[in-house]
Design brief:
alpha+beta; 5 helices; single chain; 29% strand
Length: 217
Amino acid sequence: MFTKAVISLVLAASALANVFITSPVATTTFTAGQQATISWQDDGTTPSLTSFGAALVGIYTGNANQQTLLQTVSPSIDVSATSSITFTPDGTIGPNSNEYFVRFTSLNLKDATNSQFPAEAFSAKFTLTGMTGTFNSTIQAEINGQSTAPIGATATSSASKTMMTISTTSAASISSSKTSPSTSATATKTGAAGKVGVTGITCFVGAAASLLGAMLL
């Protein structure tokens, strides 16, 4: 009971995401060269989609600490003015894999817990097929370092929303140029998972102390 209450408080403190990505999800498969749709909705929490505003949308791979932009879907799209975007996956960005995910990076809004980072939202990891590229050693090392993965959501909507909102409180620097498998520029390693970890620990300790005090009264 005590543990559940503390965990609930930590999750509530981390629920800052507002771009809830409804496609792709964990069961989604996109095919290279064929049109695919990324869609999203407001999850009802603050900040609003209007506050999130214009965002860079891209296909990434990596882990919660390090992420590499593989394909820019849109360099700037107002997430409050539309709810979907259609694009064609580039088959040269990597191999057939289920290690891809979509990241939204606000061009104006800063992360609520650390203003040096932009606000972000992540999809579940999904599959790309019909691919002809490869992951270079740097990208593969990022994928292998998934101690804090998954990046985004899971297949179920309730779980996916929880995972996404936790991920969105973390932020990594963006690489805005489209890159090839052999020359992909690795996104700068930041406090993405670390920032969530510190925030989560702080919330955990504070919540635990408060609850323990209440129990002792």
